[in-house]
Amino acid sequence: MSRRRLLGTVGAAGAAGLALGAVGGATAYAAGRPDPATALTTLGAGSVPFHGVHQPGITTPAPARGHLIAFDLAPGSGRAESAALLRRWSDSARALMAGESAGPGDHTGIALDAGPSSLTVTFGFGRTFFDRTDLVRHRPAALDPLPAFSADQLDAGRSDGDLWIQIGSDDALVAFHALRTLQKDAGAAARVRWQMNGFNRSPGATARPMTSRNLMGQLDGTGNPKPSEPDFDQRIFVPATPATGTPATGTPAAAAPAWMAGGSYAVVRRIRMLLDDWEKLPLTQQERVIGRRKSDGAPLTGGTETTELDLERTGPDGELVIPANAHARISAPGANGGAAMLRRPFSFHDGIGPDGTPDAGLLFICWQADPLKGFVPVQRKLDRGDALSSFVRHEASGLFAVPGGAGKGEYVGQRLLES
Amino acid sequence: MSRRRLLGTVGAAGAAGLALGAVGGATAYAAGRPDPATALTTLGAGSVPFHGVHQPGITTPAPARGHLIAFDLAPGSGRAESAALLRRWSDSARALMAGESAGPGDHTGIALDAGPSSLTVTFGFGRTFFDRTDLVRHRPAALDPLPAFSADQLDAGRSDGDLWIQIGSDDALVAFHALRTLQKDAGAAARVRWQMNGFNRSPGATARPMTSRNLMGQLDGTGNPKPSEPDFDQRIFVPATPATGTPATGTPAAAAPAWMAGGSYAVVRRIRMLLDDWEKLPLTQQERVIGRRKSDGAPLTGGTETTELDLERTGPDGELVIPANAHARISAPGANGGAAMLRRPFSFHDGIGPDGTPDAGLLFICWQADPLKGFVPVQRKLDRGDALSSFVRHEASGLFAVPGGAGKGEYVGQRLLES
Q: B117 and A205 in contact by Cβ < 8 A?
């Protein structure tokens, strides 16, 4: 049975719905005029192209459900086995994202009847990959290990990995089907190192058009650079032609290898939220920890979610309105030499941990052209005095080089593996 | 900020969407004509009434996200503390299901901006509850322990419990907010015993109007009794006036106590699927294990999903077309004295287990007026010779008395706790 055929009758509606996406739907919702082009029925029909300059799953709207999975190459797997694996993975990802079967071996049926549901699959390489494939000379300096942070309590078994895949979809069974398919594709070439599940708000659940909330109830991603900003691409993606010379701000960027053109670097952190402690804090104290109002994300100095923080303003008591250790102050781009990263996280909730507290928090994923100008300077500052740090614990960490998107007939990573 | 006010502008669209629900949306999808009344934007606006003859979450369409949580009463908590707890829980459930705040202490903000997203909250009592509250004389015989099954590998720590709550919503953050709120409401009266998370297909992801799939790829729930059938209520719910005498089939039903009028019994099983083994089986063998085609759920003897099994038919080789140990044959109502239960499960996926295989499967939940005429006879037969049993493992089990719905001004369980 062809999944494509099942959905063929709604192709036009699906394509129209995709152009608007979740944001368009939420806007129509707020206005009280449901837009037929964003009907509930298009959730399954939404599809994201596999081929392109960038891989999908970076600027694509955050999906309702996600899986992260890291693999280590099996003993004996080198460059040739990796190339074959990336070709299998790319073939499967392209087919599944188009709502097709991943081939004759794809008989699990988990996604049968469903549309692609905005499935995205994103592939990355960890630092150790280059050692195991004799490709160290092609390893970007940007994959140098992240500095240690004092608040880290990292579990090595759930950190790093030779290969990393991010899967997202607005349907949990479509996402699970992709996970199982890609795991099967790994065959004898690679073994699972760790795997995590996450989620976001469902499309249409909220009238708020832009920013999602996390499990602390905060709007999360307010400071994200916007694709409409002129330097967005430069901050998030490695340019097609590696830059030379010294950039305007910060330390000189390590020259990115040519195979990373159009790519990006993903920092992945499993950030446990100490929700039992956090929720005991009264609302006004929570808002002072963050420096923003919980209701609408506006700075404590007033305005709306997008208003600039007034970092100098003092209250009648002479104290700073946005406290010196407020999370929003310390992480503000202006306080970090313009450091910018695109945050596209998932929440996670794995039930109750061995200590009786909720094993829940944020699968923090941020994207940047250079981690030394994105995640690292911000986290360094947060690590020194962020009021939020008493309520979170970084439990796992990974840093992955995510190459540009595959062209037609190409597989992801081909420019590295056949260089 | 009032969540209700935020959503007020779309009240009419929301109410219209609710009447159709997920099934209506899928039908419109298949026809290629998105129905404005089921626009994506109504996902958040969907709401289920708290008050009624039955509790919500039984015949309500299966939600995209769910939480199960069981509590044990704390030492010192008896009938009075339980009554106060059920009142707190009922107050919170009613407010949250209406998209309102659960009160001044509800400041987590996790569900801010979102509509009720078809939230349902369902409360049940386990066998041990009656001992701890000195209410043994009111304990239904239907709560007698389930028989042991040979395939059980039950973890006591994740089984049973004094109190049980089922939470469902089409939005994961709305569901999580309800979970945290109800856990906080427990206060010092009860302690969490176990907690599990589940999911189903998102509304609109599929063109198939009726039956959902599980992680083995099978349509799941094909044999469910339909609300349109004349004996549906009698099979699923305890009658308003307890029946006397001997029913037409099976053993005499234990007389249900008056406080259970309009209630039902939930059997909850965490059924691990051995997916690595299952997925190695070729499709034709998987279909012989089940007795149905995977693609459309039709019996191997032909027709459509709703066609009766032809249990006697043999093939050219003289063998039964639906094998003697096929799951569909053994679990067929006709083979079990008309035993009927309403299955309303969630899938679960808790990452990778300690043995390296996926910790995934089915949070099986079935509803019936009498477990001895629903789950027990079917599971007894399956336990003796179901081909599927090689691919599943029952890891946890619970049986809960779920009283009828609360009337206005009443709390769930009041008729028991104030009897």
A: yes
Q: Is B276 a catalytic residue?
A: no
Chain A hits for B204, CB-CB cut-off 8 Å, are: 39-44
Let me know whether B288 and B359 are in one domain. yes
pTM of the predicted model as reported, rounded to 2 decimal places: 0.89
Q: Give the DSSP letter string of A83-138.
A: HHHHHHHHHHHHHHHTT----TT----TTTTB--TT-EEEEEEEHHHHHHTT-GGG
- Look at B107 and A173 and tell me if their CB atoms are within 8 Å: no
Residues B18 and B133 in one domain: no
- Judged on CB neighbours under 10 Å (0-12, 13-18, 19+), B244 is exposed
Clarify whether residues A190 and A279 are in a common domain.
Answer: yes
The domain tally of chain B equals: 2
Q: What is the pLDDT of residues A127-182, one digit of tens each?
A: 999 999 999 999 999 999 999 998 899 999 999 999 999 999 999 999 999 999 99
Chain B nearest CA to A275, separation (Å): 9
Q: What is the pLDDT of residues B239-256, one digit of tens each?
A: 976 444 444 443 344 578
Are residues B31 and B95 located together in one domain of the fold? Answer: no
Query: Which structural domain, as residue segments, surrounds residue A28?
Result: 12-42
Of A29, A41, A282, the CB nearest to B29: A41
Please state, in angstroms and rounded to a whole number, the distance separating the CA atoms of residues B306 and B219.
Answer: 12
Regarding whether A152 and A35 lie in a shared domain, the answer is no
Taking the CA of residue A258 and the nearest CA in chain B, the distance in Å comes to: 36
Residue A251 placed within a domain: no
Q: Choose, from A106, A162, A170, A220, the residue flagged as catalytic.
A: A220
Tell me whether residue B25 is in a domain.
yes
A226 and A314 belong to one structural domain: yes
Spot the catalytic one: B185, B220, B370, B386: B220
Here the ipTM equals 0.89
Q: How far apart are CA A37 and CA A305, in angstroms?
A: 28
Instruction: Please check whether residues A24 and A76 belong to one and the same domain.
Output: no
A36 and A161, same domain (yes or no): no
